[in-house]
Design a protein that fits this description.
Elements (H helix, E strand, L loop, with lengths): L1 E5 L7 H6 L3 E12 L3 H13 L2 H29 L2 E2 L8 H4 L5 E5 L11 E6 L5 H16 L6 E11 L1 H15 L4 E3 L2 E11 L2 E8 L7 E2 L2 H10 L2
Parallel strand pairs: 1-6, 3-4
Antiparallel strand pairs: 2-5, 2-6, 4-5, 7-8, 8-9, 9-10
Helix pairs in contact: 6-7
């Protein structure tokens, strides 16, 4: 089975955030979709011009069922090997969702009002450590890579696991040290000012230069990137 690794959902600052320990590389999901060679695509295009509408519809249904059977073999592997939420009726309850399941299953079954699917995804449990999810992903990829499955490929989608406490604390330190000083935040010149205070806890906003009332909510990641990375 063909495997691709997709880092496109990571921000351009991901490497820096990981280096400074504001985030860790994590795995979001394994996405299984149809995979056709250029020859198969060309043949489909040729057939679509030759066949009647009914014949073409039958051809599409035949391929969809074939693809569904290929994907069912992969789903069976997951069901046999791991505790996967939503993969069966008994594992779709709220009680099971609250348990320490390994993976989360989703498919587009029924989207075309027919009893098969041509796409499914396997997501990872974000209550587990990012390192553990990556280890599990590597184990799964090695196992499915050797499967004799045709016309299905797996796209590995990566994500970032943010350290929200470190981001919040460091961003607050930066904001408080920048009060009443002009800074550049999200491409605008302005100042951080207190906009509210409750039980001794201050809330800050960013006021663009020349603005006395209009302000923007502060995003911790943006503060870190704009005022620490580019400092």
């Amino acid at each position: 089975m063909r495997i691709s690794h997709d880092y496109s959902y990571l921000s351009k600052d991901a490497d820096w955030l990981i280096e400074k320990k504001y985030a860790k590389l994590d795995i979001h999901s394994l996405n299984f979709d149809r995979d056709l060679s250029e020859e198969e695509k060309n043949e489909n295009q040729r057939q679509s011009k030759m066949l009647t509408r009914e014949q073409w519809g039958n051809r599409c249904d035949e391929f969809s069922n074939y693809l569904y059977n290929q994907m069912k073999n992969i789903v069976k592997y997951f069901n046999d090997s791991y505790d996967v939420h939503q993969i069966s009726e008994e594992k779709s309850t709220m009680e099971h969702y609250k348990s320490n399941w390994d993976l989360f299953y989703y498919s587009n079954k029924g989207w075309n009002k027919k009893d098969y699917y041509d796409y499914f995804s396997i997501s990872f449990n974000n209550k587990r450590l990012a390192e553990n999810n990556l280890q599990l992903m590597n184990k799964i990829v090695k196992e499915i890579e050797s499967m004799n499955i045709k016309n299905v490929y797996c796209r590995v989608q990566y994500s970032l696991r943010m350290d929200d406490n470190k981001l919040k604390n460091d961003a607050l330190t930066i904001v408080e040290s920048s009060i009443n000083n002009f800074i550049v935040y999200n491409g605008k010149i302005g100042k951080f000012k207190v906009v509210d205070e409750h039980d001794g806890i201050k809330k800050y906003g960013f006021f663009p230069k020349g603005s006395k009332k209009k302000y923007y909510e502060i995003d911790n990641v943006s503060v870190i990137i704009d005022l620490l990375k580019t400092a």
